[in-house]
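Revision sheet: structure tokens.
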Amino acid sequence: MTRYRNLGLFVVLAAVWGSAFMAIKAGLAHFPPVLFAALRYDVAGVIMLVYAVYATDSPIPGGRAEWTEIAIGAVFLIASYHALLFIGETDPAVTSAAAAVLVSLSPVLTTGFARLLLPSERLTPLGVAGLLLGLVGVAVLSELDPSNLLAGGTVAKLLIFGAAAAFALGSVLTRRVDSEMPIETMEAWSMLGGAVLMHVLSAGLNESFAAVSINLESVAALAYLSLAASALGFLIYFDLLERLGPIEINLVSYIAPIFAALSGWVFLQEVPNATTAIGFALIFVGFVLLKRRAIQDELRYRFGNEVSTSD
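Predicted:
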């Protein structure tokens, strides 16, 4: 019964996070991009803080290490990631599926940054090949044209690649901080801090509330992103992280593009192309090469089979 429960929650999480790319795309017709992202985390941050008060004994950070971790989360995991993602998705050439595939590069980049920044980590030749393969997937997906780098949504896709890189770097930097703060507290304060930073950036970009259209679609998009994708999504994520571990939960990044493609097709009439599928395949193979040892260990643990770990 527990296995079916975990599987059900995993599918729900992939569906919620995958369809979030469609909701972003839909909402951007009614909001300036950075302001939209900031409002999302105004709501989600408050909800997560209430949950942290309920679920933990330490809802208020204390000490340099905990505030450092929150600063990293606010700058990289929330503000940089979402500002770049939302701006990138304003380009009509970037479908919900393409954005989700680019973001699925984040686990690959996380491993690469970990090898560079964490002394105990190192890249083997196969690991280097996996990282390079993931980057080739981004190049394929971005449809780079050396004669016209501004064509085909290339700049927008590279902005989303930058969002994935910011999230990956932030994930690694938080591991360098010696903090025992509950993850719910870290997420809540990072969301609120990131929202403040995005409001500042939004003002610097001369975005205005006057440009916001209040209607059923805009309210639905903001509510879905704040309540379903952020609040509910992270609650499911925390639960599954404890039950399944980081390897299996990382696979959400590779299921989410399927739901992004389906929701984009149903609600926005977006049709994914072959380039999106090829880019996704390259990124996923790169992830498997980078995480092969952890995947082998996980398979051995789950099924009790002797799996070779030789390169």
